[in-house]
Amino acid sequence: MTNAAAAPLPSSETLADLSEGEVLARIFPRLPGSDAQLLGPGDDAAVLRAPDGRYVVTTDMMIQGPDFRLAWSTPHDLGWKAAATNLSDVAAMGARPTALVVAIAAPPSTPIWVIEGIADGLRDGCEALAPGCGVVGGDLSASDALTLAVTAFGDLEGREPVLRSGARPGDVVALAGRLGDAGWGLSLLFRLGVDADGTPDAALAAALRERHPREIGAQLAPEPPIDRGPAAALAGATAMLDVSDGLAIDAGRLARASGVGIDFDSTTLGGQVERALGGGEDHGLLATFPAGTELPDGFRRLGVVTAAAGVVLVDGTPHTQGGWDPYRGWDGAAG
Amino acid sequence: MTNAAAAPLPSSETLADLSEGEVLARIFPRLPGSDAQLLGPGDDAAVLRAPDGRYVVTTDMMIQGPDFRLAWSTPHDLGWKAAATNLSDVAAMGARPTALVVAIAAPPSTPIWVIEGIADGLRDGCEALAPGCGVVGGDLSASDALTLAVTAFGDLEGREPVLRSGARPGDVVALAGRLGDAGWGLSLLFRLGVDADGTPDAALAAALRERHPREIGAQLAPEPPIDRGPAAALAGATAMLDVSDGLAIDAGRLARASGVGIDFDSTTLGGQVERALGGGEDHGLLATFPAGTELPDGFRRLGVVTAAAGVVLVDGTPHTQGGWDPYRGWDGAAG
Fold first, then answer.
1. What is the dihedral of CA B262, B266, B267, B271, to 10 degrees?
2. How far is A272 from chain B (nearest CA, A)?
């Protein structure tokens, strides 16, 4: 006897069961459209509008193993995060995200519902974080490890891009977004989302996410404040970047690019100062504004720009940075 | 005693020995600049010119195993081919390629000279095939399989894009580029570039390339006629696409998109008709032109557009298509 109340089982079809055309036919209706699209998927290339004669471009790859574990992330999370992290790089230029192209490589044994879930995550991420931004093209390939390569585009709407190099001594340092949650979420997953052998475990991770939705959510499906990028540009931000490798490291990058120092006021960094300074994958927007600027909604003051070139300070004392490096930080055996 | 005449050994340093910043410092000087670049690598995103208010975008991923074998392709080949195949998709819209962004994922044990060789191949491919086109940004990640994800951009220079859907009965069918060599080169490699166990072998492949430079070269480092894309658009091409999966399959795509048939004249397909129709990865440009058009240099007539919707014929007889599918065509065990 069937149980009419049970949720429908996801299709057991795999990529190997379907032609490339059939896979695309499953994906396309799920993808968000782009307001900038003049010609979308289906030809050799897409054509996009660039109303002010320029466009912003960034690219980022996410790979099963180094960048995510299928035991921890749902397919929807993967699509959402791939969109969110790229949208944040566009926003950090002061641009409005307009479109994505998405290349997915997956093992032939991958169930089609995994690819459909990624498409749903791309759609929901774009709709929530950057309405009007959509997927205009892509590529499907075979691989051993699930891989998402996203390239994102943005419209500066006639403004100058906000670079990392424009901060000046005396500017206010401000942030939109969260600090330390995503990094803490990852450390929770590595400590408590694994079985006794250290293997990532889906049931443990799901339970952990219920107990720590803020931190695990920030890690697996971040919600960067995309619309604050253009808002910062309009408010006169002198420099800005996406905080992806931790506040201290990224502040150091902005400081070196601008030839200035940054002095954080520890009282603004929450109760866990080192977690705020060192946690990766926050995807907040760190910006500097001329002194006296009324900060745009969503930005809060964290400190001040100093003349000490390239130095990151906390309450006037130099801060020693840790670091994330893609080739040193990854242990394939860790999951 | 050192032998002063010996070639310098490639550096034995690996990605794991270097910081991300050090790797980028090795790569950047090797990459070609883009004439369209307003802001290049080093910030959260690049900014590119779009003089006519539009831009063309395409993306493609190449993965060690399904898409290439390190025993057969040099790093220079990989960079060259990653550029060439993406440039060809831009050209197939009638656009001039302007820029690439390149994401590379590689095992930490990868020698730095492999990444440098890829960068050199990207540069030489752009300089040879699309002068003025350059690399404006990218991403470095860790992975088990060497992976290149390239997104390419183009400028329509005020023209309308040439779609797959514009062919009309009576149009001339024409091609710029080679037919069948790349597919034949791959079959040679699979038959003669492997050892007794079927494992790809570098020495055998190198010897094979000396004996069959045309076919192996077309497979490993293709030279698509990029500048013929804009030339076809200027000459009034009604439809165009990049021949990547074999002439018959891609002609079928153009025929279905346009609601027409295509009838090839077998006498124009060279001595090996099936090789010409079925070989993949040619990366020539298949275009249709109104009857009576003087074909642009580099294009040769292959047949005529008919009214029989979606049908590919050879000398008036329907042609049965083979096919390449990324999830069905790849056997991971094949190398």
1. 140
2. 27
